[in-house]
């Protein structure tokens, strides 16, 4: 095999890093944007929810796009749209313009990760994929973790518009490098777009994501929540049935006939749900209950992100040598124990202890995600890679949204139940009421972490069935050949 195109992969990495970081970059700035544009919390939240929705809708189409167009055409188009969105966001005069800009960013970012992963799968032989995918894991996990820390510092000292001013020059530089340096390595074929499939997948994934993303705010009994989830599930079912009958499906569900890919997909879904517990619940505990500043809250998570970043390439090399099962079992055992420790937080748990446990949890996580995912991809024939990476990225978005909504809703319900029982003992005293509210919220957070322990245990049981595999060039899709 020729030497992998490292220069080209580096350009793709920069684009993926910026797009991943951009997903969480704005979260800490939302209160400032609410104040500037005089909008409510439920309205401003669409800057995050809308970004996730566009990703969830467009990622399923990435398999079609990567087969229809060259990787150079796709990347330059995606980065151009992302750059235009960044400029528009920086100068946006109204909230509506800012939201449109954010959705433009998302539509450009949606193609970045699937494209990078496909180029890497084509560029590296199976025995070296672990190390390469470990570096990809570094980008996928550390970029969103660094986002809140960096944006917390920027928002504390400058305007929220500075966040987009920083992204713009990086995006321009990456775009110029892509125009002059990017070559085509992915195979193309004549393929037609099934419009009905695109509509069904957009309604399906979009409906489910919207429903679960809105549950924390509107409540599970809202018609907007359960109505959109039901419509999403029906559309998704029709979408899957249609894909199994098409000669050239938009998203190939027959990849699930490969047992290790199917298993890796199930484990990734469960881990994504559990992983979001700490990313969402820790800032609530640190900022709301403990009164620690947004910057210090983001700073607490930074060492964990750095450890994960350092470990990802190391884990990749260990995967090449020992396979996924041993790494995943060790990593999930650490993750489960540290999550259990997080389910016993108190009003005076030290900042240093929280940071240490969070670091250990990230250390455990770094040994699971990429090895399991790479092992699953290794079983597939190369022609299935675009469908597999599109499927992985779609399921991560959906399971992440479902997991976060589920855990936050559990926390809120537990908090309300605890508050009802504590309110009787306060006698209406405002100081006691505030203390009771914090105590109730702490109970809610601890309860959500307890549930996360059981979710992670499911993933641990599944990892014992992981086996090391190599690609099978069999008679896959015999009927459609």
TrEMBL record:
Membrane topology: Multi-pass membrane protein
Keywords from the UniProt entry: Cell membrane, Membrane, Transmembrane, Transmembrane helix, Transport
Transmembrane segment boundaries: 7-30, 50-67, 74-100, 106-124, 131-154, 160-179, 191-212, 224-241, 261-286, 298-319, 326-345, 351-373, 447-466
Span of domain Major facilitator superfamily (MFS) profile: 8-471
Superkingdom of origin: Bacteria
NCBIfam families the UniProt entry points to: efflux_EmrB (TIGR00711)
Listed name of the protein: DHA2 family efflux MFS transporter permease subunit
